């Protein structure tokens, strides 16, 4: 329970697999977490289109907040994944369930979009990595298809902004998530009017962009404060390191590998590397690159379940650890991994095409995925080092993936760098820190990070057999898959 004089805030954290509402008690330089409500996030496919079940999520969020209200919280904040959105009509009603970023409506849309507007023009305006999941690509695909929702829309809100609207009545977008859309100009700090005009999107559709820490309104008498509503933005806000050359891997469904910079890096080299500049909780930018992440393993696990083989993630890691390292490695950014599907078969297909030993058992497939992810992280860190001139002495792994000792050790080995894993609840902690800063409980994020560093569990992994990983990395050199936009 919260001690005397503690300040309690509620965090609503929505991930691609599950969501939760948690209480964070701040007292005497320490943060204590309590899970109040956890729920599944199950996308729904209807007539070939994959949707988020946003009304079910809204009901679960309210249920969790209801439990939290008994704790008399000072504020609450919502974060979620990026890029997806809802459209409202003139009365403020939601026009339809938000479509999932993995839906196939954007197949080939990046190529058509860039052919029309030019990669250089789009990147110069936004500094964002080209991916089929991007909001810009989704809206372009909607315009191509003549979807009626877009014609009737009067307001665009991203997923956490939509929930905040239902909580408070305020229609606004938050900075860190707005930057992920590929519609926001990070240097001018506003929506990119040239891109909106080029796609015939009414600028009035896009609301004011608010900074993390803004008081948006109230719900049931509790202040609603916008954190970095992009979950990775919140996770990085909780990174214990404050060194200017710190690198991070936000490890979950996606792996986002990056570093924090004072200003967006938008130049020819950044465009060629297909990196991205996303807003940070302190108004700076996260220069990073998306890697396919543990999504591949999540889809493998679902495929095995359909075959009658049910295993926990911990059990999968334990089995994979018994397999020989680096027997098979693949480019994890192969575009075939992006949509849901039979990912064990995709892993086997990619191995076969590349002349790698074909893994057959779940343990061997999982080991291939973990080793390949670690090598992908190395590739991104080398790219970021060239773009920033930083050497990255240590890599901080944040989020749920920080509990995966096998992947953390593989990352240390592949990158030949010390890996500091934790905190696992970085997103919740970062969400809470921005609220606590707004409340005046912590002076700034650096003070909050010191609280986290002294109280959260962290584990260090040192590189070992670097030579073997160098050889495996060479096997993957210049082998990115055709059609990949990652």
- CATH level 1 name of the largest domain: Alpha Beta
Distance between the termini: 44 Å
Number of helices: 18
The pLDDT mean sits at 95
Number of strands: 21
Class inferred from helices and paired strands: alpha/beta
Instruction: Tell me the domain tally.
Output: 2
Helix content: 25-40%
Give an overview of the whole structure.
The protein is of the alpha/beta class. It has two domains: 7-225, Nucleotidyltransferase, domain 5 (2-Layer Sandwich), CATH 3.30.420.40; 239-422 and 458-486, Nucleotidyltransferase, domain 5, CATH 3.30.420. Helices cover 39% and strands 21% of the residues. The chain has helices spanning 54-69, 109-117, 119-126, 135-145, 148-152, 159-168, 175-178, 193-198, 231-237, 268-273, 295-306, 313-321, 343-354, 362-388, 405-415, 426-439, 445-455, 466-476; strands at 7-14, 18-27, 30-40, 44-46, 49-51, 75-79, 85-88, 155-158, 173-174, 184-185, 190-191, 209-210, 215-219, 222-225, 247-251, 255-261, 276-279, 285-291, 394-398, 418-421, 459-461. The strands form six sheets. A seven-stranded mixed sheet has the order 17-18-16-15-19-20-21, with helices on both faces. Helix 16 (426-439) crosses helix 17. It starts with 6 loop residues before the first strand and ends in a 10-residue tail after the last helix. The relative contact order is 0.13. Residues 480-485 have low confidence and may be disordered.
Write the layout of secondary structure elements.
Blueprint: E1 7-14, E2 18-27, E3 30-40, E4 44-46, E5 49-51, H1 54-69, E6 75-79, E7 85-88, H2 109-117, H3 119-126, H4 135-145, H5 148-152, E8 155-158, H6 159-168, E9 173-174, H7 175-178, E10 184-185, E11 190-191, H8 193-198, E12 209-210, E13 215-219, E14 222-225, H9 231-237, E15 247-251, E16 255-261, H10 268-273, E17 276-279, E18 285-291, H11 295-306, H12 313-321, H13 343-354, H14 362-388, E19 394-398, H15 405-415, E20 418-421, H16 426-439, H17 445-455, E21 459-461, H18 466-476
Parallel strand pairs: 1-6, 6-14, 9-12, 15-19, 19-20
Antiparallel strand pairs: 1-2, 2-3, 4-5, 7-8, 10-11, 13-14, 15-16, 16-18, 17-18, 20-21
């Amino acid at each position: 329970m919260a001690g005397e004089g503690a300040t309690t805030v509620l965090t609503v954290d929505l991930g691609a697999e599950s969501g939760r509402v948690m209480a964070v008690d701040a007292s005497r330089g320490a943060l204590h977490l309590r899970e109040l409500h956890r729920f599944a996030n199950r996308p729904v496919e209807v007539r070939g289109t994959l949707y988020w079940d946003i009304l079910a999520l809204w009901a679960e969020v309210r249920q969790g907040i209801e439990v939290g209200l008994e704790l008399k919280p000072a504020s609450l904040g919502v974060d979620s994944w990026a890029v997806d959105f809802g459209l409202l009509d003139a009365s403020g009603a939601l026009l339809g369930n938000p479509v999932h970023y993995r839906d196939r409506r954007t197949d080939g849309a990046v190529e058509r979009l860039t052919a029309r507007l030019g990669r250089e023009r789009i990147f110069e305006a936004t500094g964002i990595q080209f991916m089929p999941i991007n909001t810009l690509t989704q809206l372009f695909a909607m315009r191509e298809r003549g979807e009626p929702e877009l014609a009737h829309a009067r307001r665009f809100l991203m997923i956490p902004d939509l929930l905040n609207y239902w909580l408070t009545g305020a229609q606004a977008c938050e900075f860190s998530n707005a930057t992920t859309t590929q519609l926001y100009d990070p240097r001018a700090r506003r929506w990119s009017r040239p891109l909106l005009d080029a796609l015939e999107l009414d600028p009035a559709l896009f609301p004011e962009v608010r900074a993390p820490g803004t008081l948006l309104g109230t719900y049931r008498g509790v202040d609603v404060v916008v954190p970095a509503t992009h979950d990775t933005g919140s996770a990085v806000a909780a990174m214990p390191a404050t060194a200017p050359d710190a690198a991070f891997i936000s490890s979950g469904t996606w792996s986002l590998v990056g570093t924090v910079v004072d200003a967006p890096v938008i130049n020819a080299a950044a465009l060629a590397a297909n990196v991205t500049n996303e807003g940070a909780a302190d108004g700076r930018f996260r220069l990073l690159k998306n890697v396919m992440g543990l999504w591949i393993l999540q889809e493998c696990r679902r495929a095995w379940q359909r075959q009658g083989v049910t295993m926990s993630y911990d059990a999968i890691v334990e089995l994979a650890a018994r397999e020989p390292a680096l027997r098979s490695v693949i480019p994890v950014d192969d575009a075939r991994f992006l949509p849901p599907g039979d990912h064990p078969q995709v892993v086997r297909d990619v191995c076969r095409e590349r002349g790698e030993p074909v893994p057959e058992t779940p343990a061997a497939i999982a080991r291939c995925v973990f080793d390949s992810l670690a090598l992908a992280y190395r590739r991104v860190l080398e790219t970021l080092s060239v773009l920033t001139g930083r050497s990255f002495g240590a890599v901080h792994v944040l989020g749920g993936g920080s509990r995966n000792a096998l992947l953390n050790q593989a990352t240390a080995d592949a990158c030949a760098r010390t890996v500091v894993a934790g905190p696992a609840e970085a997103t919740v902690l970062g969400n809470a820190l921005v609220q606590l800063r707004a409340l005046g409980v912590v002076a700034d994020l650096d003070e909050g990070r010191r609280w986290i560093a002294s109280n959260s569990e962290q584990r260090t992994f040192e590189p070992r057999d670097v030579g073997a990983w160098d050889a495996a990395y060479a096997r993957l050199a210049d082998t990115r898959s055709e059609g990949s936009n990652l």
